[in-house]
Each structure stands twice: as C-alpha cells, then as structure tokens.
Fold these 4 entries.
Entry 1:
Amino acid sequence: MKKYKSFLRIRFINGLQYRAAAYAGVATQFAWGFMELLMFRAFYKADPSAFPMEFSQLSSYIWLQQAFLALFMTWFFENDIFEAIARGNVAYELVRPMNLYNMWFVKNVASRLSRAALRCMPILLVAFHLPRPYNISLPDSPASFLAFLVSMALGTFVVVAFCMLVYITTFYTLSPLGVKIISISLVDFLSGSLIPLPFLPDGIRSVVELLPFASIQNVPLRIYSGNIAGYEAALSIVLQIFWLLFLIALGRLTLARALKKVVVQGG
Amino acid sequence: MRLYLKYFAIHLKSQLQYRTSFILTTLGQFLISFSAFLTIYFMFSRFHTVEGFSYSEVLLCFAIVLTAFAVAECFARGFDTFAAMIGNGEFDRIMVRPKNEIFQVLASKIEFSRAGRFVQALIIFIYAISASGIYWSMDKFLTLLLMMISGVVIFSGLFIIYAGLCFFTTEGLEFINIFTDGGREFGMYPLSIYGKEVLRFYTYVIPLALFQYYPFLYLTGRVQSFLYMLAPLPGILFIVPCLVFWKIGVRRYKSIGS
C-alpha cells in the first residue's frame, strides 16, 4: 500500500508542474462553459416548458463539469502507457514488484487529480460569483453535498477503470488510435458530457442511464444540484459501485490474459 | 503544386499501410461528428426551434461548418501538430530546405482519416439541402461555394495562428481550441443564438460569423442584400494577419537544440 501511496504522490507533484498550461486551460474551459450556457439559454428562450431541469441546475452542472473536467473526461489517457505497450517498455514495468493493474490505475487517478486540483479553484470561484441563474448554486443540502463527493470519487474511478480497458486492448491492436477515438466519441455522448442526459428523449434516457458511462459524471453532477436526490441518488451510487467493480474485474481478467501471451516488441 | 501532389500520394500510400488503424480512425471521426449530430437531433426533438431557426436550417449550417472544418483539418493538420515539430527539431530541417516553410509544413501531414468527418458532413448536407426548402438558384449556389471556401481559409488561418504561437511558447496553447474545435462545436448553430456580444466577437475578432452567419441569412432568404452574400470575401482576408503573425514567429525562432 505504501508504494502506491508514494507513487500517487510522485505523479501528483509531477502534474502540478505544468502551471502555465493549466492557466491557459482554465481560460479555455471558462470560455467553453460560457458558450455552452449561452447555447442552452437560446433553447430555454425558445421553450422554457420543454426544459428538463431547472436552469440553475443546468448552470451548476456545466460549471462543475468544466471545473472537474480532468476527473471525468475519457480523453485524458496516459500516453506513456500506450507507448510502453506499443514499444515494449512494458517489460520493465513487469519486472517491478508491483501489480501492473494497480500501478496503472493509481497513475491515472493521480494525474487526473493533479490536473483537477490546479484547474478547479479559479473556475469554481468565478462561477460562484456570476449572476443568477448562470452561477453555481450552493449544493442542494449538506447530505447531497456529501453524496456528491462520494459519487465524484466513484465516477473518477469508473472512468479510469474504463480507460484501463482501452489500454489493455493496445496489447492486441498495438496502435491505440482507432480504439481511443471510437471509445472517446461513444463515451462523450453516453456519459452526458456533450449534453446532460436529461435532455435525451425519455425512452433512450432510461436505457443510457443504466450503462456504465452514466456512472461517470452524470451521477455526481446531478446529485450536487439536487436533480437526483434521496432514494434515487442512493440507487445511482449503488449502480456506480456495481459498474466500478465490474469494470475492474473485467480489466484484471483481460490484462492477465493479455500478459500471458504478450510479445514484447523490439529489444 | 506538382510537389504537393507527390506529397499527397506519399501520405495516402503510407496511411493506407496501417489499414485497420486507418479504418478505425476514420470510423471514429465519423462517430465524433455523428454524436454532434445526435445532440442537435435530440435538442430539436425537444425544442423544435431556436431563435427562429428550424431543424433543417441548423443542420445546413452544421454541415457547412463541418465540411469547412474537415477540409481545413485534413490539409492544415501539419500546423495542428506543429508543437511536436518544433520540439523534435523537425522544423530546423525544414528551414534549411530551399522551399517555403508554410508549404512544407502544409505538406508534412495530410490526414486522410478526416474523410470520416467529411462523409458525415456530406450526408447531412444532402439531407439538409433537400429538407431546407431553399430554391437553389445560381446566386444561392454561389453563396454556398463562397461560404465553403471562406470557411476552409478561416479555419486554416486559425491553425496557422495556433502553430505560430508555438514560436513564442514552444508548446501549443490550449486556449486557441476555443476557436478551432469550439468554432466547430458552437458553429453548429448560427452564431446569433449566443447573443449579440458573442456575434460581434465572431464578426470583428475571429471572423467565423462572416462565413457562417451573414451569408447564411442570405441563403435562407432572411435578407435580400447582396452584401450578406459577399460577407465571406472579407472573411478570406483573415488569412493575411495569420500569415503575418506566422512570419513574425519564424523570424524570431530560435532552435531549441537537440
């Protein structure tokens, strides 16, 4: 356990180095969130009664999404893992007295955390002070804030567990490009990062909400604003735990099988 | 031009070597724009209209922006990955060759997998053109053509600025994505839906509206003035400051060694 902890710390500190990039990133995310809000405002003006959530809930959703982008987005892959697999450096990783799955998992979580830590504060601060209803409102209740934190951690783990599967397929395909881009585009849509899931038609939505991808950002962001509350929130968190365990089990299994017949490229 | 065609053939051949990866990437590009299309579809099945624009009109706008972006990205991809080129010293090699740098960067990468996006745009285009109920007279057709050309040029200009920034920072700056990727994502809708200030910004600072919004009003018969039809022409001029910026960057370029 200790070695994973120090591993986490190293990656975290490493991630904190890129401060200039982070500030540029904050500006980007801020502008992005702003444009998105304006777009939804235009639709809201067209027909307020068709809006599936309150506008203030949507604002909270979008700002939190931008603030914690690094935690939830599928496209933050660790490129050195892909490279290690494709170039054969994975051999070095295998001789280390650590479990490969755990090590990669920790690596991913750490770099996501450090990115988010650098970026979330400025966005949250500014977004809190925007005029209503374009700001982040306070959490619905202390209980929902607590549930939000738990669910946010779970969501991060779920997306990392999913990314692990993408890394592992590289053992078979060698070039990660295709799988990467396909999984990104699918997950982006199904997780509610393009438009929040309540905007989907009801039939489709009820199916999509059961998929593992809905357990990434959809649950925590909606719990925060009280869009999912009470019994429903508890149920969603249980579903998150289920998918997390499932994805981890699947990842470990496929990794073990891939390693059994791994051919290390080059010398 | 002949040299470019030669590069073109080489890139095509080399990318077709990794056939599975190529097909998957193309498919992925298709899917990415497809999910963008789905968001429009779902939003409109709920709201039906936005700021007076109908579903088929927004689709037409989406298709135009997507096509322009796909073409620009396919050919100007070298600028998009320019940070790497400075990082690994490839640009030094370009500087010593007796050919224009812009030409060489342009020819250094041609991304054919963007065809996935392009095909998508084409399909939506065909649908939107037939569904929008626009009578395609000669002038409308000309407007459409101007929009396309201007769009490709403006997006390429943005890629060039993005690359030019690398001369000053040696690393790509993320915020220009607001205009490239953002231009694609938010340009799905006519830019007026974001409000007056945003429209003004996209008219005078980053002239996306010149090819995407004003001529679009003419196309859909909202205005009759020919001025709107010709708005893409000043949009094309956007490339001039981009190239000047690039030139300034090249002049102060210092190799980073290695």
Note: Chain B has one domain: 2-251.
Entry 2:
Amino acid sequence: MIEKETKEITKVEDRRRDSGSKSIFRDKGLIAEMLIGITDEFRDMERDEVINCLCLDPADGSVKDLNGELSLSDAGLARLDTLIEAVVPGTDDRVRVRFNVECQRRFSPGYDLYDRAQFYAGMLIATQNKELTSVARYKNLKSIYTVWVCLETDTDEAKGTITRYGYRLMPSVGKERTYDRLKNKSNLVVVCLDDCTETYSKDHSRPKVIGILNTIFSGNMCDEERKNELRKIFKLDIDLLLIREARVMTDLLQEEYDMGKEDGFVEGKIEGKIEGKIEGKTEQCVETILMLINEKGFDRKTAIELANVPNECREEVFSQLNTIIGY
Amino acid sequence: MTNLLQEEYDMGMIEGITKHCVETILMLINNKGFDRETAINLANVPDDCREAVYSQVDIALGY
C-alpha cells in the first residue's frame, strides 16, 4: 500500500516538478528578501520597495512565474523551478533582472552542480530577446541570477555561505590590462544552508537569507514552528501550506516514505490539491477546444491556440483530443 | 481516497480551472486583441467558477 502511494506521489511530484511550480518561491516577501540579500540591484532596499518592483501574477497577486517564456526553436531546454523578473528601481522598464531559484537536495546528484548552473545561466541569457534579430538581440540584455539553494554541501566550510560567481577580468596575456568594460550580467549564486540550530535572532552575523531559508528547509522544527519563526523573527507571513509544500519538493517526502513514516497524510492532501489543479486545467482546456471547434467554428489549430494550453497539461490535453476527435 | 483528500482534490480542480480561465481571458485580451466580453465567451468559463473568474479578471484589468 505504502509502495503504491509512494509511486503515485512520486508521479505527481515528477509532474509538479515539470510544471515548475515551486510555489514557495512565488511568495513576494521571500523573493524580495532573496533579491535584497543576493543581488547588487536591490541590495539594502526595504522589502516593500522591492515588492513594488516585482512582476506579479494578476490572477492571484503572487510573483509571476515566467517559465513559459523560455524556449528556443533548436535547443532542448531544461525547465526551471522558478523564474521571476523584477524591474530595477530608477530605470526604465527594460532594465530588469531575471531571477531563477533552484532548490537542490543533493549537492552531488551524479553530475557537477556548477556545470548545470552554468547551463542554466547560459539559457537565461540566450532566451532573452529571442524574437529580435541582429543588433537588437543584444541590446538591453537583462542581468540574470541563477540561485541554487543547496540543502547539502560538499564541504563543511561551505555551510551557511552565499557564494557568487560571474564574468570578471582574468590576467591578460602580454601587457597587464586593468581597464575593463565588461559589465557582468551572468550571476551564478550558490546558497548553502546549514544544520545550525541557532536561530537568526541569536546570531545576527549569519546572512538573513540563510536564516530565512534555513527556517523553511532545515532543522527539526515542525511546519507550524517554521511558520511562527518566520513571522516572529523575519516578519514574513508565509502560508503554512507553502511551507509544507517546500519540504515536499525537496525530496523529504520521498525519504520520509522510504523510512516508513506515517505522516504522508498531510502531504497527500497537498498532492491531491496539486493533482486536482492539473486535472482541472486539462479538463477545462479539452472542453474549451471542443466548444471552440464545434460551437464557434474555429479550426483545430486556432482553437488550441485560443485555449491557452499550459505546458504541464499539453500532453494529456492532446492525448484526450486525439481520443475524441482524432487530433 | 478519503473524503478529506477528495475535498482537497476538488478544491484544487476548481482553483486550476479558475486560474486557467483567468489566464486565458487575459491572454485573449492582451495578446489576441479580443474585447472582454468576447474573451470571456471564448474561454468557456464553467458556472461554478464564473464569479471568481470575473472578479479576478476585473481586478487584473483595473476595473
């Protein structure tokens, strides 16, 4: 029974990973704190000021996920966990940062994490301005940050650190050159959490972002305690469901099931809701496409285009259409 | 599936449909140039989500 449930949840989890909906990183307050703590553009700003710079989803007011904008016709791209954009204050609308957060349970998952991070950084640059050609393509490139929140580290020394990498001037060949006109736009940030039980309130030398992420992901606190700690110490009011979901997405759920713990029920509720959301969108898309074809007289291609099929439902929607109308 | 899990599933389903309808309507207005009424008509909004969808669309459009 447990094995079957585990498989089901893993299946849903895989689908959810594909959908890129790591909801906790769509929380405005959390993302604002990460932008303040990690980027040059928002450093030392107040949280509310940063929230005003975020691109928000008009449907629910959360931080807008821009994953759908990632595509290149001839490149098989990875789907990101979270991709958001923020307008840099005091600049025009085209000067933005693209901020990608990846949550990594294992530091050595069978490849070099830094290689994958560099691939993502390249992807975030390459998928900008893709509709433009020649000179225009390279104008107004947004700075990108690919942020890797690591729950495990390769060395103890790395625990509790935020390390940033980017393009910089390397030693010249021949005469030494100090003048550098390259403006680094590609930032790779590795945030290593620790298992420190000391809270941020007791040790302010620790970076605030580490304190917040540690409270969400690390230690032995129950989810209610995490929520209270976030509110009390960091004045962050994050939905309890999102905090639970954050643990699910970091493979903890799988591990807990493997260890035979019986607390899958609450997580099951979350997964049920997520699965329901995907099913709901799929059903809605299929019905809308059929209505547009049968009642409004659109051709199949136009109907599919107008129905705005989300990526995470695409395969299932087309499969159902195939069954019904031989798409 | 217990009743509680079924409730979560059903709630998720309605949320998913609502979110998709809102996104589709906004896409039809902003990207395809349809007016609000036509976009709502094309998006095939189910009755049980109608109120929430209209409200979210109006907020997004600044009505």
Note: The first strand of chain A starts at residue 82 and ends at 87.
Entry 3:
Amino acid sequence: MMFLQVVLTGVLVGSVYSLVAVGLTLVWGLMDIINFAHGDMMMISMYTVFWLYTLLKFDPFVSLPISAGITALLGIVIYKLVIKRVVNAPGLMALLATFGLSLFIRNFAQFLWTPNYRFVGESILSGKRILIADIVIGLPQLIAALGSILMTLLIALFIKRTKTGKAIQATAQSRDIAELMGVNTEKVYAVTFALSGICVGVAGTLLSGIFPVYPEAGAMYGLLAFVIVALGGFGNIWGAFYAGILIGLTEALGGFYLGTQFKYALAFLIYLLVLQFRPKGLFGW
Amino acid sequence: MNEIMKNRMLYLIFAIILILPFVLQDVNFQHITIMFLIFAGLGEGWNIITGFTGQTSFGHAAFFGIGAYTSTIMFYKFGISPWIGMILGALFAAGISAVVSYPCFRLKGHYFAIATLAVAEIIKQLFVSWDYVEGATGISIPVKPDSFWMMQFHKSKIPYFLIAYVLFIVATLVAVAVEKNKMGYYLKAIRESHEAAEALGINTTRYKLYAMMISSAVTAVFGTLYAQYILYIDPFMVFGLDISMKIVLLTVLGGLGSVYGPIIGAAILIPLSEYTRVFLGGTGKGIDLMIYGALIVIVACFEPRGVLGLFRRTKKRGAQYAKTTA
Amino acid sequence: MPRPLLEVQNLTMKFGSLVANDDVSFVVNEGEIVSLIGPNGAGKTTLFNCISGFYKPFSGKVIFDGKDITGKSTHQITSMGLTRTFQIVKPLKDMTVKENVLTGAFLHANSKREAENLTDQVLRMTHLWDKKDMLAGSLTIADKKRLEVARMLATKPKMIMLDEAMAGLNKTEIKEAMELCVNLNKNGMTLLIVEHVMEAIMPISNRVVVLNAGRKIAEGSPQQIINNEEVIKAYLGERYYAKSRQINGGI
C-alpha cells in the first residue's frame, strides 16, 4: 500500500513537472533557446495568485485565467524586448540574456515582496482529501495533476490541430522555409512564448495552494524542467510529458526509499542513465 | 609576426593587472582584483572545453568544488598545506572529469550541456548529505598565522593577489599553449565538425577527454585558492549553479573561444557584481543582483557577439576604411 | 601484377529493414582511378560511410593496404592512409583556409613547422594559396570543395575517396578538378570517386563500378560501361550517350 501511495504521489508531482517542461520544450524546440527565466515566470504566476488572494480574496481557481494571462503577457514582453534581439546571436549569447533575465526577475520579486515565504491560506480545496482504501490523495494535489494533464493535452492539440500550431511546427523545422511559405515567424515566436507563459502560469497557480510563495519558488522547477525537456527530447511535447512523470516517480520513490536528501540527485542520475541508451532523449530522433 | 604581436598584447595586459592593487591601495578594490583574477582564470579553463572544443559545460562548479573541498579537507582534518591540496585537487578533478564525461561525450549539443549540469547537481547533493565533510553546514577553515605555506594572510590582501595573479597567468598561458599547438587546432576542428575532424584522423573522444581534463584541473586550482581566500566553504557555495553560470557568463560576454574573452568578460562582470553588491547589496532587497541581471540582458541584446566581437568589428571597419581610402 | 589497395568484400549494410548495400564487392588497385557511379539512392554514400568507418557494416569486410579495417573508427582509418571528402562540404568555418589545412597536416608531422611546410605545399598545389587567410566559411562552393580536398591531402593519404566533389561546379571548375585528380594520380595517388558528373570522370577513370538499388550491377573500363546494356537501362540512358560524345569531342 505504501508503495502505491508513493507511486501515486510521484505521478501527481510529475504531472505538474510535465506542464512546466512542456512550456520550456516549446520554446527550446522552436528557437533552440534555453530559457533560464522559465521557472521565474512560474514564480510570478504564484505571486499573482497570492496577491489576488490576499488583497481581493480571490480563490486560486478564480485567479487561474488572470495569472495565466499575466504570464502569457510576460512571455510576449520577454520575447519582444529580449529574445528577439538574441535569437540569431552566435554561441551562447541567448543563454546569457535569459540568465540575466532570470536574475532580474527573481531579484525584482525579492525587492518588491521580500524573500519571505508566503502562503495562500484558504482555497476551496485546501485540506480536502480523498481516501481510497489506505491511499490518501490530497484534493489540491489531485486537481493540480489533473489540471496539468489537461493543459498539456490542450497545448498538444493546439500544436497539432490549429493553423497557428502548424505554423509553429513548420517554423521549428526551418525558419527560412516557413517564411517562404508565408508564415510570419516573428508572430509564431511571440505566440510560442505566450503559450510557454500560459503553461507556467497554470502550473504556478495550481502549485500556489500547495507550496509556499517566495522569489526562489520557481528555481528548482526551472532546473528540473531542463532535465525533463532533455530527457524527453528537445521540442517533443509528449516526450516532456512522460519524462516529467518519470522524474516525479524517481523523486518520490528515491526520496521514500533512500531519503529525501537524494531525491533531486536521483532525478539527475536518471537523466544520465537514460541518455546512455537514448542519446537524444526518450523520444528524440 | 602576427602571433608575436598578439602575445605582446597579452603581456601588456599582464603588466597592467600587476600594478593595479599597488596604485589603488583600497581594500575593496584589492578584493575585486583578486576576484577578477580568480574568475578570469576560471574562464580560461572553461574556455578550453567549451570555447575551443565546443562542448558546453554548465557544470564546472563540480570541479571548482572538488578543488575547494580537497584542499580544505586535507587542511581541516590533517593540517596538510593547501598547496599540496591544490595539486591533489587538480588531479582529482581531472580524474573525476574524465570518468564522468567519457560516457557523456556521446551526447551532442544541449544534451551534453544538461548532462554536465546534472553531474554538478548530483555531486552537490552528495556533499550536502556527506557527514565527513560537514554536509550542508560547510567548513570554516581554521585560522592560522600568516604563512605562505598554509596560504593564509590576514594583514594584507597583497599576498592573495600575488598568488591569484601567478595562477591566473599560468591558466592563461595553458590556454595559449593549447590554442597555438596541434591540440588547439584539433579541438577547434572538433568544434566545427565532428565528422570532418574524424576524417582528418583526429581521435575526437580522446581529444575531448584531454580538453576536459585540462579544463577541470585549471578550474580546481582556483577552487582551492577561493576556499583559502574566503576561509569558508559549503556545498551550495562551491558546487552551485551560480558558480558554473558565472564562469559561462563572463566568458561568453567577453568572447567565447578567445584567450582574451575571459579577461575582458571578468574585467566587466566582476567589478559590476562586486560594486553593485557593495553599494546596493546592504539593503538585502536584491537590488544589486537586479541591476546586475538587467545589465547582463542589455549587453547581450546590444552586443550579441560579445565585447571582443565589438572590438573585432570596429577594427575590421577601420581596416576596410583604410583600404577604401588607400 | 597490380597490387590491390582497397578490397571491399561482400559488404552489406542495412538500416532497419532497408538494405542500402547488398553484398557489394570490388577492388581498387594501387595507382588506379576507380569511379563509383549509380543513380540517386543507389547506396554510394552509404558505401563510402562504411568504408571510411562512419558506419559499421552489417556484414562483409573492408581490407585496406592488407589490413582489415572493418568497423575501425574513422580516425584510425585516416591515420592508416585512407581518407575521404564529404558530399555536403564540412569546412571548419571559423578557421582560416590555412588553419583548415594545417589541422590535417598535423596528423603525420612531428612539429608545427613541418606541418606548416606541408600546408604551404598543399595550398599551392590546390590553388588555394591566395585565399589562405580567408575564413573557410566565406569561400565559394567551388573553393570549399577544393578545401575539402586540400585538407584531406594534408593528412598524407595513400588513397583518397571523393564524394561528389564536382557536383555544383561550373565547367571551368570541373575541368580544374579533373586536372587535379589526374595530377594526383600521376604522383602515385589512388582515387575512388563517387560522381554524378559522368563527362568529368569517364575520361579519367581506369575502371568504373556501377551500383543500382544497393547492388553492384556492372564493373569494367569506361568504354565497357557505357556500352553495357544493363547499365544503360538502369541508369545512363540515351541522353548521356549523346552528351558524352559531345563532351569528348570538345576536349
């Protein structure tokens, strides 16, 4: 029973990891840019929920469209102001820019809101749980996981079915040829950053009821998202999804059987091991 | 001829750096020059594997930390001189880098970069939960009277400066020696095209391994110096992503793949981060890092080829001008 | 009695269920120019990749200079004196032309000076001397192909394999490339050439090997090949026949 409980916890956590990673893999696959500020965008979403709750008594689930909208907007602003200028820069210059951006956003948050931990007190879900046999499932965790899976599905459908989604795919294959086909790649990039923002916006909202809100809140998620994206294969949405679950499981099982201090180390170790057999990630080609 | 000229430029830079802390005898300034030398040296080391060879490492903190911990533990537990620890640390780092990067060399591009990041994070976690090295608490290096052999100086920063200076020059000359010889050409060929390099008879795996070992040994040396200078280390400080990224940032900023890159990058970034910290860091509100981050973004946006790229472009423009007017 | 330098024995290469090379055997003797021709998708480049160590063949053997090189890595094969160019050129872009060639020259040189002397020699031979300080990335396609050859020559090979070194060149450039091949051959170099430009290689080849759909369908002198029914059917067609008359008349 304990084993099942741990597995379930891992899957639930992993689903949220997946959503964060999906947002990152979109940008990475499309523009070959490592966005170090990805986790920090999530942190902004968490603060949005926190302030809406504290000041206006909005329930986190009511805030969802607002916080997702804000991070989407943030994504577009980041693209227009920064990424656009470095997307064709040689070497690792784009990485330099996103790293600077991450430092800026994180410390801006600290400047405005101090480094203290804050909590979104009550939501309609907090404290509620489901009991199946001996397995306890926290409702906030369950909703976070289901919401993340749903969101991943929506993003995947968007990419696959809509015209804009197809334009994104075409641009990822070759920017020049997409341009020749009449795709406005500038717009495609901006839309992708907005989508990426929505992913972390939703993930941040879903997590804000479970975890404390503070300037570094997104840092570990951002870092794990790198590993998950690479584990799944760059630009591969379902790859990122399954890799997220795998990392969640590794963390939960490893944390339970070996001690929580090793859970992140194990997540990184899984990456190194899998890549020995699949040098381009689980679903890479 | 050109090569001699270039080296002259390097010696001029060495000479200018040497007089800095004597001209401006301000403790803060001396501290910044020491940090500058440490990070410029780290950049020189990192440049060998990433700038020359094209294998991006986001995990050099691993080797920095190994250098710092090797000498510190030997001193802390057995009272052995940090100089011996420094040499052993460099050897350890080279050995460990060989073992961990050999299987990773099959990975291409970002997959390799993320793997190096993973390695550094794993090593950090191991040190955090390793009681023998005091885990997350870290180690305060016991204070001893001023001594060259024990690499501790409390009366003045000048001895630290001189040690950092010599190590920096060694690191730079190692990079120059690699670049100007067969190895440098081989590494650059690997960077430009793996297949072409193989077809030219280059054992790509072996040369990548050599580059990684030299690079991590150089990095470890500065880890020891840093530990002796700050006199305190913990896993988050020396194995953290911050250190890895700082090395990446300053080299990219200055000019990736050039011996001058890390020197220029460190000369900009280190005073920037140290001065913002001194003047604005006291508030505890993160203004210093905020400004630091914003400035990095601005530089990246407006000079995407690195500062060295800017120099080269102006020089080229000048040359073109000379040509058209001649 | 000619001495065989490269022997390909029953080489088969598969990618999953796709058979790219099926039981291919042929020999290149020392001092020969042998051409490998065939329509697109015949498996020529795959065969090159198997010989030069980029792929490990599924079965069969490759013998070079009396030694079994099957499954050896590319750099080992190059060190033994067999090297190649790439169909899609791979210049070391951010390095100058001279540095490109120098990188190859280090292979058998004992000092940088020796490597530099060899580099100068190769640069003059391949008419790249005037462009030695240009960045390889900024060269024209013809010069990039020339650079591929130059870099390869700097490794002091016994035998070279050219993968479509003339595709995309204009008539003058093709003629220069042909002359270079002939000159190298006169100085004792053995060549294996994959080429689409028939009119360029037919006149200079000693023998021609024809691949179609992964199999060897013919081998013989250029004259035999252009008269071979099966080859004409599979590949060359009337168009070539007429064209080759025209070109040969022109030279």
Note: The first helix of chain C runs from residue 44 to 51.
Entry 4:
Amino acid sequence: MSKFAFAIFIISFIFCAVAQERERVVVVAHLADQPVSLSKGEIRNIFMGGVSESNLTPVEIASGSHIRVVFNTYVIGLPESRIQSYWAQMKFSGRNKPPTSVGNVDEMISYLNENEASIGYLPEGVELPDSLTVIFITD
Amino acid sequence: MVSRFTLLFIIESFISFGATAKTSNDLQFSGFARLVGGYLSTDEAKYEGYNNSVSFSEKSLAALQADYIINDYFSLSGQLLWHSDETRKSGVEWLYLTYQPNASWQFNLGQIRTPFLKYSDVIDVGFAYPWLNAPQQLYSSYLFSQYKGVNARYLGSFNEVAFSLEAYWGNYSDEIHSSGTAFDVTVDGMYGGVVEISYRGFQFRTATIHANDTDTDLTELDPLIQGLRAAGFPDTADILDIDGGATSYLFGISYDSLNWFASAEWMSVKSDLDILGGIDSFYVTFGYYFDEVLVHATVGSSRQSLNDIENPIPVGIAPQLDALHFAVEEVKTYFPTDDLDSLTLGARWDFRNDLALKAEVSFLKGKEGKTSFFELDVIGSDFDRRATLYQLGLEWVF
C-alpha cells in the first residue's frame, strides 16, 4: 500500500469514527389523534416560540443536560448562550415565554406521557411508552 | 451622580431578591441588572454621558418584573426599573394587561415599550444583545421609546417560515435628552407596525413609526421665538417652534448559526421638523462564537441631511438684530446634527446561563461642526469629534 493510499485510509477511518460517535436525538410527541409530520425547520420554529398547525406544545430539558446541548446543536442550530439571550429578549419584551422545562430524561418521558399534544426530545434508544410517537431523528 | 456604593448596594439587593424570588403558578417574578463601567478618551466632550474618568453611572441599572396570570386568557405585567443615568427616569417602565385568546393572537393595553428596532423594546436588558452599547446611530433615545396605548400581535407559520405581525397605537409623553439638551415631547396618536419573517437561521424585519402630531416644549426658546416674530422673521420662528410630524422606517436582516451570526439594520427618519428631518442610519455586525465566548465587530454610521437652519437676520444694522442673529446661531449649535461613523469591537463571555461578562471598545469618528452624538463641554470648541470609548460590564437575568 502506498503512503498516499494509507493516508486516505487513516483519514477515512477518522471521519467514520467521528460519524459513529455523533449522538442522535429523537423528537417525540404525545399526539392527540392524527399522525403529524414535521421537518427540522418546523420543529425549530416550535421550540423557538412559533406557532404550528400541529398545535404541539414544546417541552425542553433544563440547561446543563447533555441531551439538551445535542438537541440545540443539531436541531435548533444555535449555541446555548444565544438561546438564553433570545429567551431573555422574548420574556422581557412580553412577546413570548420559553418552553416548559423538565429536569432530566425520565421527567421528560413522564411529562410527555401525561400531557397530550406535547413535544419533546430524548436520546436515541430510550424506551418509549406507547403514547409517544417519534416525529424526527437527527442525522 | 450616583455613588458606586449606592449602585452596588441596589444591584446587590436585586441579586438577593432574585436568589430568593418565590414563584407561584399565578404570580411570577423575574428581572435583570447590568453593571457597566466606561471611559472616554477625550476631555473635550462627553459621549453617552461618559467622559475621561471611569464611570459606572451611565448604563448601570436593575429591574424587577412581575407577571400575574389572572386566568387562561388575561395576565398583568409590570416592570420597575432603577437606572443610574440621571437623564433616565426610574420607576414603572412597563405596566400592561395582556389578552391572549389563543397561541396566535396577543393584545396588550397599557404602558408599553415601542417595538421598532430589533432590540429597542429590550434596550435595558443588556443580556439580550451582544453589545454593551448598542449602535448609538440607531438606538439613541430620542425616538419615542414607549407609549401608552394598545397593540395587537399575530403569530403564524407556513411550513418552515414563521412570521409575526404587530400593530400599535398610543400617545407618547416624555423628556428626551439629545446631545446634552432636554426636550419635553408629546405625541398624540402615534402608530406603527412590525413584520418579522423567520426562515431557518434567517430573520427579516421591517417596522415603521408614524408620529404626525408631535409637540416639543422648549420653554427656554419662547422669548427668542417671540423676538423673531416681533422682528419680522416668522419663518425662522416657526423652525424653532418645534411642532410637526415624523415618520421612521426600519429594515433589518440577520442570520444566526451555531458558530457565527451576522446582523444589520437600516433606519430612515423623515420629518417636517427641520431639526429632525432626513436621518439615515445603519449598522452591520458580525460575531463568531468560541465556545462560551462571542467576539463581534460592528460598523455603524448615521447622516443627518436636512437640518441646516437658515439664519436670515442681518448683522451690523442694529444691536437688537445682532443679538437675535447670534442667539439663533447659538441655538443651532444645540440642535442635534448626528453624523457619526463608528467601529465597535467587543467580546461577550457567558460564563453562566444567567450571567455574561462583556468588554467593548468603540472608535468614534464624527464630523467637525456637528454634534455627532457628542455633548461638548465648550460650545464652539475645536474638538475634532474623534474619541474612543472603552467599556466593561456584567449582564444578569433572573
């Protein structure tokens, strides 16, 4: 194997390894009746305080949680500091309030299970109760 | 000037309150505070109240907000603000009733801050924006910052496009400070609207304010105005007797991403008031995130084109006319002619979710012969309208 081919192999391996390690988030909802299909952009709008035809109410996990960071990175597309300053602007201008916040993944599952028409996010692979439907999975 | 000890005591009291604030389902307390120190490189003028000694009394403030949920549709919000700047009133900043029949519609009634620029209704909440000193060319205080009246807001979406429409109407009455001069200004029937459209990281924003019946009370000028009328110069008297209308338009665009953002706003003011007409201002800002640290650069500019007040009074004919001529000339120097270019470099470190430390340097380049947002210590000084403003601050929300 030439040095060039070896270098390509190593670089490819590193990229594959990084891709393998990237965590995935599932966006789940407690749907009232009809199935709902939402794009990443529509989910972003819901979690940034916009209204949606789906009428789903967003629920977030409190800051400091790893899965929150992953969700903000791959779905919202903003750093935590920008999200905090955005909600300060919305709150103190009287325009909007941040989503209901829960403490951890278990509380998220419990909250979504108990509240119809709610939407939240969880790490991929978490066992879901029958009431919850996966709406979106990050790449 | 408020002593630093008083300032620290008040902010510390708010912090203590914030730490122990109780929240019930019906009544919620929140608030914000900022401690900002600044220093201006020149001793020939002030800018934003700063001179060439370190001051914490220009931008520091603290506020407490209470939101009371009356029922599923109605809530009441009030905000008490304490400001260290003597030209800003402390007291009730907001007080309004909200009616929200559903997620899309919101109606407010009461004392409300005017939603014109991207951050104008949260200009006291420094945590909400990147700078310590928002671009002065647009965010200066003489554009009707709040009103008593009503507004209606509609939120909607179409696939990935989210939008909001807002319209408002009300009356404005306040003391406005500009370039060291204070004016009592009242506006009857001020109205305007805001349209915001968001698509992924992009946001487009346009807004307008119409203040057609503006009345400015400059009582110090009454003897001069009467003298001009008596001497046969009614047109000049009318210019100084500031009553008329003003209309402002705003266009803004921004893009936010995980690593960087860019934002720009352009504002135009048209007015039949000679001292206000023809203002065009803009800023462009770019920021990059290094983890919790944001570094940003902003270029700002303003031009005021229609404020050349003609002085038709001849000199050398009679001592009384000479006195009138020079009185008009002196008054002209007090009216704002705010041509200013600026470059601001800053950093913001969000070391906690509710606390941010900011540092900022603004290079200011005005025009000789114009006020350029400076407050001159000596009228007619040969100050070249160039200075550097250094600021350091702490922003907090709870």
Note: Chain A touches chain B at residues 39, 41-42, 44-45, 48, 50-53, 55, 63-64, 73, 77-82, 84-86, 88-89, 91-95 (CB under 8 Å).
